[in-house]
Write a structure and sequence with these properties.
elongated; about 300 residues; ARM-type_fold; about 65% helix; Plakophilin/d_Catenin; repeat; Plakophilin-2
Length: about 300
């Protein structure tokens, strides 16, 4: 577990180690089957896989990038990674939609297991069944790592989480009952998932009211709370930017007063959250059909 966080070279060597990833996956599968999701070895195993999934899209060996990322490379190298508020964001997302998803192998080995739907379902199972904060956070963090990029692999993982494995209910539960750092990681995962246009209606329907409910009434709290608040605002931005329907959902969930209060805070700790809330308000105002509702 310690060695897996030793940097790019350490991750590379461990990913290439014959049988290591397969053994970790096998052990976690056995622990879940035996109803032992809270033992320390399971925590260590999932933390290792979490670390090995970090920067995976960037650090994939060329043999994988040639086979599943050729169309990704057709996107101009001048295109920057789309952020929440990037001017090229929509264009890159549209290209991402046209990129074929990587085909899954029925019996993955080694590094291939890191983004396979089998392991994605294992993470979701641990999120739902484990009560260890580190195990939950590592499972959420691995999914966050895997959905962080803009290529076909992150998009495929996001679609598996939301549509194929029905992972949103488990993530939604974490928003309400968990340790602050676990909650922060869950929100960061939702932020990544919300960048995919084809998943936004599902995400808004399932978790948008929950995101509003965990927003603080005012900008007060720790750095972790401030970061979580900013991530929630970015997620809501993604969900409402192109959808008047989702903006109306935000309104009906009584999100507007909270977002206004956060945007008006000028403390250094909450400056990032305040900026995110302000940009969200600016975006919400672009839905002219909702102006009268906003004013009321």
């Amino acid at each position: 577990r310690n060695m897996s966080s030793a940097g790019p070279e350490g991750r590379k060597k461990m990913r290439e180690c014959n049988g290591l990833i397969d053994s970790l996956v096998y052990y976690i599968q056995g622990a879940i089957a035996d109803h032992e999701p809270n033992d320390k070895a399971t925590e260590n195993s999932v933390c290792i896989l979490h670390n090995l999934s970090y920067q995976l899209e960037i650090e994939l060996p060329e043999t994988y990038t040639q086979s599943i990322y050729m169309q990704k490379r057709n996107i101009s190298s001048n295109d920057k990674t789309p952020g929440c508020f990037g001017t090229r964001s929509r264009k890159v997302k549209e290209k991402q939609q046209d990129t074929p998803l990587p085909e899954e192998k029925s019996n993955p080995r080694g590094i291939e297991s890191l983004w396979h739907s089998t392991l994605i379902r294992i993470y979701l199972s641990l999120i739902a069944k484990s009560t260890r904060n580190y195990t939950q956070e590592a499972s959420l963090g691995a999914l966050q790592n895997l959905t962080a990029g803009t290529g076909p692999m992150p998009f495929a993982v996001a679609r598996t989480v939301v549509q194929k494995a029905n992972g949103l209910p488990s993530i939604r539960t974490i928003l309400h009952v968990s340790h602050p750092t676990v909650k922060k990681t869950a929100v960061s995962l939702l932020r990544n998932l919300s960048r995919n246009p084809s998943l936004q209606s599902d995400i808004a329907r399932e978790v948008l009211p929950d995101l509003i409910s965990i927003l603080p009434e005012s900008a007060q709290g720790s750095d972790t709370v401030a970061e979580t608040t900013a991530s929630i605002c970015y997620t809501l931005y993604n969900l409402t930017q192109s959808s008047s329907h989702n903006a109306r959902l935000l309104l009906s969930a009584h999100g507007l007063p909270k977002i206004i209060a956060i945007s008006m805070n000028d403390s250094n700790m909450f400056s990032k959250a305040s900026r995110a809330a302000s940009v969200l308000l600016y975006s919400l105002w672009s839905h002219t059909d909702l102006h009268s509702a906003y004013k009321k």
